[in-house]
Amino acid sequence: MKMFQVYPYDANRNIMGQRKYTKWVSAFFLIGSILLLALIGPRWGIDFQGGTEVILKFEETVSDDDVRSAAEDIDLEAPLVQRFGSVEDNQFMVQTRDVAVVSDQHYELIMEGLEALGDHQETYPIEEQPDRMEVRYTAEKSHDDIRQVIVDAGLEQVDIEERGQRDEHWYALTFQDLQRHIRAGFSEHFEDAFDERSGVQRLESVGPRAGEQLRNDGMLAMIIALIAILIYIWFRFDIRYSPGAVAALAHDITIALGIFIVLDIEFSLPIVAALLTIIGYSLNDTIVVFDRIRENLDFAGDREVVDVANEAINQTMSRTLITSLTTFGAVFCIALLATGLIQDFAMALMVGIAVGTYSSIFVASPVMLKMDAYLKERQRTQALLDKQDEEPDPSAQV
Amino acid sequence: MKSTLYRWGIVVVALVAALYVLTPTFLDWSTGQLDGEPSTTEGFASHFVEAPEREGAEYEWKGFEPLTLGLDLRGGLLLQYHVYVDRAVQDRLERMEDDIEERLLRVDPDIDVDVQHVRGEIYLDLTFADRDGMDAVDDDFMGFFPNFDVSDIGGNTLRLEMHEDYIEETQDFAITQAIETIRSRIDALGVAEPSIARQGANDIVVQLPGIGEENVDRARDLIGQTAQLRFQMVDDEGTNEFFSQFRGQLPQGFQLRSVGSGYHSITHQSKEALEQFFEGNVPDDRVIGYQHNPIYIDEEAGILDEEQSYWVTYLVYRDTEVTGDYIQDARVAIDQDFNQPYVALNFDATGADMFAETTTENVGQRFAIMMDDEVQSAPVINEPITLGRARITMGDMRSFTEIQEEAQDLVIVLRHGALPAPIELQFETLVGPTLGQDSIDSSMRALIVASLLVIFFMLLYYRRSGGVSTFALIMNLTFIMAMLAGLGATLTLPGIAGIILTVGMAVDANVIIYERIREEWVAGKPMKESINEGFSKAYSAVFDANITTGIAGLVLLQYGTGPIRGFAVTLLIGIAATLFTAVYVTRLLFIEWMERTKTEKLSI
Fold first, then answer.
1. Collapsing DSSP states into helix, strand and coil, what is residue B408?
2. ipTM, two decimals
3. Are residues A167 and A68 in the same domain?
4. For chain A, how many structural domains are there in total?
């Protein structure tokens, strides 16, 4: 019967023998990734460091530099401008560390100005809402005077609302929020090319405190997932397999992170999901190989473990190739066709599939062999020691 | 064969159930959009959905709801706020500092005491110049502060410590109140299907799907506002004259009614209609206060009769007498004589003076407790309230529980409407409707092309067995969608990513099995044996692989936030569907196939 074959079923190539070369390949990538992580570090998305990300759509063709200079004109802190989607889309993604229009500098100027109006009683900045402030006076102040203070401090717009009792002169100030500031700023800069009302396609803003929490939550989720998976393998297989699986995962995560830095993929929440998928995928591969080694060892008799492992890898090779190639192909399609988040996700998965397939063969199994050798060695020494204990020194006999 | 009959039964039942759950989704999709609006409610569809009674209202789905799309796919605004609940507690303690001192001075003008609250702590320290001063803090005095324990910590110092459950209550109230306030403000926007939910311990997530661009700024502003409670006098003398002037010229739906003790009011089913009606018709120094008067169809179940319920209007002086900032404490108490719940209210020293002045001047008149433009309650001032302790009695013609509920609602408003814990915008996501549509289109296109590629490969490589896989894969996707719809989960972009991963794993499961069968076949075993061996030997690898991924999914569900959870939900559902279809159903199809075929040829 004729069958398509990607890898002959009766092959028994010496794959494990290659491990003396591949360990240098792994070492090279690992050290490279660690250096990249230590020296450059991942590019954190706004999810993890706080800030605002906005996608703007323009009516006419504009250049990156135009958008960048507009972002600088409206005083966004460290703006990052990137084209979003294809050139015809005329969409740009602008990221900034800002979450509010009011900076510390503005604050000081405003506080001074408000006090200079006289009859000043107290000013209450609201820490958690940087775009609001409350001020109390002992005598009435005109809205225009207050507004002038804000304008002098360099802010364009403020809403003033009277609060409190009849004879209290208590004013609540609401400064222009960042979103409106961006809308107004870009529409002024680009005039007809940017529609103030519908130009903002997407806006995401994360407070710095929330960013830190998300980062911690993400790390925690990842560590717990790893530990849970290891415990499961320990139970389902045995202690010989666990270190191999850990080593493969640590290897994959480190190299994947290194490649993300090289590809300049932003490290955001969805990328954490992608990393976890990579973990799942790589484990999947590792387990298929381990499963076969376990099965073959049951009938192995006196054969060397390394030969049994090599045989198992050969037997599962066609499956490994088929699955890796089809999933890689499918994910590649998605990376080509999808946009934004899904695209980043697909790119991360492509990296994961490549690294995961490699590590299940050239990291997990060799480490498993080392662990096996180490345990056997210990068993032998233990057996020797036991033997000595059982048979007392004949010279001691009388 | 008996055993396959039983297995087929399971598969058929599961498939029928899945299709049943998905029917509303198909009906909804019939318009080309998953927006909760089907193209028809006639005939077959009438078993699943009912058209809304009023134009513009939502469709009523019976039983299962159609699959809903997340904000990232359909466009809309998502805001997540953090509520600083500790601040609610700290603020309360801080404001008590001066108040306790003043109260003590009233008891004994010569007392020399220093009240101090250390920021971050849950107690107040009262340090007296001499020990005799401590006598002023007796049971009577502590009656003002029922939620505190007093203890002598030496050095002429008394420590007033807040009860643990009172702290929790205060924090809980802060969140409930913030949610209530946000909800009532969002309602004013008229956005369809807004969702305001508590997330985790101290966060609130507001979702406004499909919100119009012109409303985005308004929504953020409305939510961001700090609620302020105000006490304003009702214009009792002018009320009847004011409302009667409209007699005879009221449009359809408006009614002139007599509410309370003979006071007139104009009522209508909709607050907006009333607002429009009164615009430009109110004297400059007066405002209209609105109060909802709910009428229930089924009181137990809390089903509102929207037709019968109406809004009552009050003519209120524009000037504010006292604001809620001066309220120190509010709680529900029960009148022993009449066995009726009421709200007991304590003002702090400054507020007590202001309140005393107002109530002395206006005995016999009504005052309105207002939040924004809504009247929470409009009690009559029976006597001057000079001690800063007020009592608000509820309406009288209703049941004990009803009054108690109303009193509790009012307490929430009184306590925290005045000072809700500060809220901070954590993150905000705004997705324009076109970008949402673009995401769906491009993701769907990517998903379809990727699936076709995989199916094409499977058919080419495994031929008829590849056909079996394709069938299982389609069934797999059906089950995933049905489970998502059945659980009322929302489909988001990361959710689609989860489905993509699942499809990959389902294909892998089949590849593992088929490769094993081929191996056995190549080793020279007969067809049936190859298939049986192949399946049973591949099981452990397939299960372990899926379970480890499932473990990762569970952890993500537990510890992940927002988008990650969406990914975890579809991943877990996908794994369950995969184990069922790629293993159970595929095997069943193989058994059936072997029964029917007479040849010893294997198309794999």
1. helix
2. 0.75
3. no
4. 3
Residues of chain B contacting A275 with CB distance shorter than 8 Å: none
Tell me if A59 is assigned to some domain. Answer: yes
Query: CB distance B446–A9 less than 8 Å?
Result: no
Q: Is residue A392 part of a domain?
A: no
Paired tokens of A64: 């990156």
Q: How far is B231 from chain A (nearest CA, A)?
A: 10
Residues A230, A329: one domain?
yes
Which residue would you say has higher pLDDT here, B337 or B317? B317
Regarding predicted confidence, which is higher, A240 or A213?
A: A240
Angle between helices B164-187 and B85-107 (to 10 degrees): 120
Contact A132 B224 (CB under 8 A): yes
* CA distance linking residue A112 with residue A153, whole number of Å: 10
Q: How confident is the model at residue A394 (pLDDT cuts 50, 70, 90)?
A: low
For the entire predicted model, the pTM comes to 0.67
Q: Do A55 and B450 touch (CB under 8 A)?
A: no
Amino acid at B163: H
CATH number at residue A170: 3.30.1360
Q: Which residues contact B290 (CB under 8 A, 6 or more apart)?
A: B271, B274, B275, B311, B312, B313, B314, B373, B374, B375
Residue B12 pLDDT: 93
Tell me the mean pLDDT in the region A338-354.
Answer: 80
Residue A216 lies in a domain: yes
More confident position, B62 or B360: B360
Task: Report yes or no on A368 lying in a domain.
Answer: yes
Q: What confidence score (pLDDT) does residue A251 get?
A: 92
pLDDT of B428 above 90:
no
A-B interface: how many C-beta pairs under 8 angstroms? 251
Query: In whole angstroms, what is the distance from residue A349 CA to residue A343 CA?
Result: 10
Nearest chain A residue to B540, by CA: A291
Q: Structural domain of residue A132, as residue ranges? A: 104-176
Is pLDDT of A398 > 50?
A: no
Which of the 8 DSSP states describes residue B32? T
| Interface membership of B430 toward A (CB under 8 Å) | yes
Please report the pLDDT score of residue A28 as a whole number: 94
Give the span between the Cα atoms of A44 and B373, in whole angstroms: 44
User: Considering only residues 326 to 355 of chain A, which have any Cβ-Cβ distance to chain B shorter than 8 Å?
Assistant: 326-327, 329-331, 333-334, 336-342, 345-346, 349
pLDDT in tens, A103-140: 777 778 888 888 888 888 777 666 555 667 778 788 88
Bridge partners, residue B298, by sequence = B303
Q: Do B449 and A236 touch (CB under 8 A)?
A: no
Q: Does residue A220 belong to the interface with chain B, where contact is any CB pair within 8 Å?
A: yes
